[in-house]
Write a structure and sequence with these properties.
Length: 257
Amino acid sequence: MTATGTFLPEPGAAPLPRMIRAQAALETRMLLRNGEQLLLTVVIPSLLLVLFSTVDIVDTGADGSAVDFLAPGVLALAVLSTAFTGQAIATGFERRYGVLKRLAVSPLPRWGLMAAKTCAVLVTEVMQIVLLTAIALALGWSPHGDPFSVALLLILGTAAFSGLGLLMAGTLKAEATLAAANLVFLLLLVAGGVIVSLDKFPGAVRSVLELLPISALSGGLRDVLRDGAGMPWRDLGILAVWAVLGLGAAARFFRWE
């Protein structure tokens, strides 16, 4: 028996972990239903891996098979496409249409919304990595190295690109974010050591390109997975700096409306 004026179940916000899980599941479903996002995050990396591994189009500068060079770079590209390009575009248009403004006044705190988006990115990346690894293994890839080093590179790479993507989405108009994110994606695809070895660039240019997060991620993954190197501290340090700068700037300058 309940007292007059009370309700069962008791109204109020759900526990914070449950709200974050629900929002993360929603973000993941929305991403998987978006054909353009799937093209960017799944189809393009898969096609690049198959095409450049089976057809002698680009000189990778690798001594071994092409897939041994390309697979780590394509894994880095998958992180870039999801954590940076896809997240920047989706968040930019959510901001334009007022979705973020409305979610910001819901029981889910703003940091919880960002945490949910990050969880959705990580879930998508896991699916990408599983798919791309299966394709690469079918093409004859023979990975080496420490899985912990690989996981650490992927986590720091995700943090770095997420910060940069949120910074872009929270400061530029949606149309500008769409254009800029796609342009950056194409530029880093060519100049980030993904399918073209950085050794092909002049020394001074290469020194600058090696400081980019995509170069650090693809280079670190390649050192570990192809060459069996130990912990790639230099690449991890570069990614950590980008992660701190990107996430810090996003927290400082992100505008919700």
